[in-house]
């Protein structure tokens, strides 16, 4: 039997409009930029991957342009000619020559899994050991910047039975204004929804200690990354004093970060993101560290398009516990999809594909239309 080899890697930068501005503490998104990877194998199979970040370099250390350059210049020469079916060996070659760059790695690992799944006739969740759920409950982020608009948007999502978990992006204004905004939304939604906040590192420890107390009093269920990512001890102190559980997000930029946060008791909940760990297999290493440390899990997003979202979904489907559910709504924030078969959201859940690989088929016409030249 001749084993298929990796023949080529092609990266495309794709700019897609968002349905409305999406306001985060560090950046307001008017569109989203995806890096799509097409990894072609000698048996004619193509694996597809995605690496997507938020706001150029505003969120993390890799930009769409650096991801493309680094895959083209450094990853591709390491992979071309290697066996397509040996993901362990391929990722080990990358480990030996590339530091960091978890977003670019994630696209590569995803594309290898997609290709392997297509070759073996297995969905990626099954390659990862098998799914223990067929769908994932998905939160929606309210981030229009306007309290009334956010309440209307949440009511619409409840009526559609699409979301009943809402994450509010705060941190760009005075904490008192943000707390009033959050409390008004929680009052309007009551027990019909779980309301959570994401501060995206915007507060100091002193502000966070008071604000977390007030958010707890307002009925908020979860507080994501209230203070900067670097200081594990400060995160542990804020966490110990908060009446509402704290979730680590930006603090995790690698599997090793997950270990250090778990060791330091920094947060009782971790946001899992394939891009921050280096792929669907890599993110499971962070998940297992958390599990062993008694830390609860949440399936996070970098607001990826459909490819990255489904890659995440396949990985999260295999976890024995996902107590805080997921926020895999990225495709719903975009006006266009680059897939022929768009992800299915129904009854508050994203359904996990059952066809081989990720279960994605690229829409060539749309890809060409939105691809940056
Ligand atoms: C983040 O910080 O969690 C996830 C949802 C959203 O609206 O922003 C992202 C990034
Ligand atoms: Mg976050």
UniProtKB/TrEMBL annotation:
CDD domains, per database record: MLE
Top-level taxon: Bacteria
N-terminal signal peptide: none
Pathway: Aromatic compound metabolism
GO molecular function: chloromuconate cycloisomerase activity; manganese ion binding; muconate cycloisomerase activity; racemase and epimerase activity
Annotated keywords: Aromatic hydrocarbons catabolism, Isomerase, Manganese, Metal-binding
GO biological process, one term: peptide metabolic process
Xref: NCBIfam families: mucon_cyclo
UniProt-recorded name of the protein: Muconate cycloisomerase
